[in-house]
Amino acid sequence: MTTSVRELLAAHEFLRGLGDEVLETVVGCAHNVAFEPGELLCVEGASADTFYLLRRGRVSLEVHAPGRGPVVIETVEPGSVVGWSWLVPPYRWTIDARAIDRVGAVAIDGACLREKAERDPAFGYALLTRVSTHLLARLQATRVRALDLYGAGHGH
Amino acid sequence: MTFAESFVVDVDGLDALVQVLIQRGYETKGPTVHDGAVVPGPITGVREFPRGVRDEQAPGRYRLGKGDERLFAWAVGPGSWKADFFPANQVEWRAHTSEGALSFAEVGTASTPLAIIGARPCELAAIEVFDRVLGEGAHPDPRYVTRRDTCFMVVVECAVPAGTCFCSSMGTGPDVKSGFDIALSELSDADGHRFLARAGSSHGADVLAAIPHALASELDLRARLESLEHAEASMGRHLETEGLAELLARNIEHPRWSDVAERCLSCANCTMVCPTCFCSDVLDISELSGALERRRVWSSCFDLDHSYLHGGAVRSSTSSRYRQWMTHKLSTWWDQFDTSGCVGCGRCVTWCPVSIDITEEVEAIVRTDGAARVTVPTSRSDS
Amino acid sequence: MVTSEHSVASKDVPSPGAGPLTPLTHRVVRRVQETSDVATLFLEPLVGDRLVFRPGQFNMLSAFGVGEVAISVSSAPGEGGPLRHTVRDVGAVSHALVRCEVGDVIGVRGPFGTDWQVTSDVEGGTSDTRDVVVVAGGIGLAPLRGALYEFVAAARGGGRVFILVGGRNPDQIIFHDDLAAWERDGATVMLSVDQSTPQWRGRVGLVTTMLGDAGFDPRNSRALLCGPEIMMRFTARALVDMGVDPAAILVSLERNMQCGIGWCGHCQLGPLIICRDGPVVPYGGVVERLLAERER
């Protein structure tokens, strides 16, 4: 299975270009997982010890609102990542992540990765830089959406 | 008579010129004194020209005073000739609804051809700028083109520039080289009060031939050049145009824009007196009777609504609007129409109620070229 | 709104020779409510032939007695039929237009401005085989509709067309039938909304987040963007970051247009007079700078 996970990791956008050493380090913390439609990958408030590199299937990030049910904040597509809460204390999910389709992902043990990052700062820096890139893109997209672009009107 | 030749015409000859143009069916207009200013008005003879009138102009200041025997010893006043080609408020079409049906009535474009007697070189330059805006391109304004094509233009070169003049910086005066039917230079010296006249078109030559004239002497020609040299030397202001368009383009975030906005009232005076400002509102007006009308009315980039886009104005601050006006005149006009939008007439300086001086604003940016600084007002209420 | 049951007296009908600000009267022959505040009007001239236009150009539409507003053409030159304009209710004039009913008469002047350069050939004179990436936000799909029909038809020869549409919510996505038709004809169609609904199974997120997943070749693509200016700015930057040539990105700009023919001065954006030099302009160079400059 390890070979397979390595291949899956090597093919994933998240680790692209980080080199074999980084890949080997991550492989040791990773395993292959699958979710059925409707299944939750993360549960708001629960302990965040894993994150997911999506390979196939769409995942929605949701907040449960009384009277409204799950409100979809954003969807995440294959090639992207679900879950950042493993990175910093208190390691607790801040949002629900639900499989919309059958989801295939590589699950990565956050505690395992943190430990390796602390031991190997070069690896940790490379990892954090990559995580930050994704986070910044996600933050920026959220900012623009907060403008309610299409609400203000476009008169064509 | 050839275009190269110069003739001498006396004051009676100038009167004859007006009469010939009237006889030939022109509506004759020229500078007149009205409400304490030299402004365009109807002319039926030399008596209506501002004879013996001088002007005193400074930023925010315009006064008429007593001059000598000359008719054209003043610089431009608040009115420009653009109103005659591009009326301040014109009906584009009228329509009527009756029992649900709509019928259009064309608005006549034919009018009596206009003869302007006494435009200054900078004013002709301004009309030529207008030609590029409304007279050329994919959609020329037919009524503008008609008025312009049928116009007879007598330009009088400048002998007495005002304190706010800088036409020599802009290459639009005090002399005139082309674009006229007849060019006059007013001379007043030991040899008497007279006009040096040149024809700039066959039409002009024809009219000139019909009035009393004599061949100009070397002395007359020299007197004209001396008058122009004197005019150029007494030009009240100067604008360095070398690299100006680029200078402004790279100083879009210069702090001076905020500085001038502290003084600017956004009153739009500068755009109303500017002989090249061409912005207009297109307005539909409906009456209870069912009559509809589309009008084109002068407007200004200093109006908040000028840049309105559903949701709000693109240029809500005074600094943005002043920047739009000045960079348009001196920089982006080149991109749009391959010419400067400023002819150096100085009207915007004279008629600014708070004495903002475009040449001074440019100079301030020249002195601190590159002092770009992004400052964003915390509220959008400084309009 | 004027309802003309009788034909306009022919003597007084403005001909193409009438003043440039005189509209040609058109009758609304069909009306489709696209969303709660967007309607498509299908227009036939009361006299004369249908206007000939290129995708991306706009017309000035008159709601008689109210005013005139610039609206892009949303029909495709190849589909024949009435002239289409898809209008969003954002002001007095557009409100009057959106409320038009079949049989009403409105005014049309145009077409004006630049187009999406559907038929532009790459250097060397051969036909353009680049991937076509279309990113539309909200009603921004309307000015692209005509171009999309042409691109999708042209792509049958082997080219690829990617259509990325963003909207505030699923109800705001327009032209569902067209999107389905383009997908059926081989285009990649991706939708994303900012606000989901319980029924929505598609993407939720900013339209730019679809760029990476679309599958076009950034080094061999041309892109057409139409939507809110902020959306176009961010999308263009994202495309350039991916490797798309800024000169190969077209954006459709909007400013206050009162005449459509370069007279009124309202639609200036720096050196550009949008009705004359636009609305469709290349992003690379001047426009990239202008969109970054702040007017405030």
Give a quick set of tags describing it.
heterotrimer; B: 383 residues; 2 domains; eight-stranded mixed sheet; 13 helices; 16 strands; 32% helix; C: 296 residues; alpha/beta; Elongation Factor Tu (Ef-tu), domain 3; Rossmann fold; seven-stranded mixed sheet; globular
In words, what does this structure look like?
The complex is a heterotrimer of chains A (156), B (383) and C (296). Chain A has helices at 2-11, 20-27, 110-119, 121-146; strands spanning 30-35, 40-42, 50-56, 59-65, 69-76, 81-82, 96-99, 103-109. Chain A is an alpha+beta fold and 156 residues long. Chain A has a single domain, classed as Sandwich (Jelly Rolls). In chain A, strand 4 and strand 5 form a beta hairpin. In chain A, helix 1 (2-11) packs across helix 2 (20-27) and helix 3 crosses helix 4 (121-146). The longest helix of chain A is centred in the C-terminal third of the chain and has 26 residues, at 121-146. Chain A is globular. The mean pLDDT of chain A is 91. Chain B is an alpha+beta fold. In chain B, the strands form 4 sheets. In chain B, strands 3-2-8-9-10-11-1-12 form an 8-stranded mixed sheet, with helices on both faces. By secondary structure, chain C is an alpha/beta fold. Chain C has 2 domains: 2-112, Elongation Factor Tu (Ef-tu), domain 3 (Beta Barrel); 131-292, Nucleotide-binding domain of ferredoxin-NADP reductase (FNR) module (Rossmann fold, 3-Layer(aba) Sandwich), CATH 3.40.50.80. Chain C is 19% helix and 30% strand. Chain C has 7 helices and 16 strands. Chains in contact: A-B, A-C, B-C. The interface between B and C is large, with 59 and 47 residues.
Estimate what percentage of residues of chain C fall within beta strands. Answer: 25-35%
| Main sheet: strands, sense, barrel of chain C | 7 strands, antiparallel
Overall geometry of chain B: globular
The interface involving the most residues is between: B-C, 59 and 47 residues
CATH architecture annotation of the largest domain in chain C = 3-Layer(aba) Sandwich
Q: Could you give the order of the helices and strands of chain B?
A: EHEEEEHEEEHHEHEEHEHHHHEEEEHHH
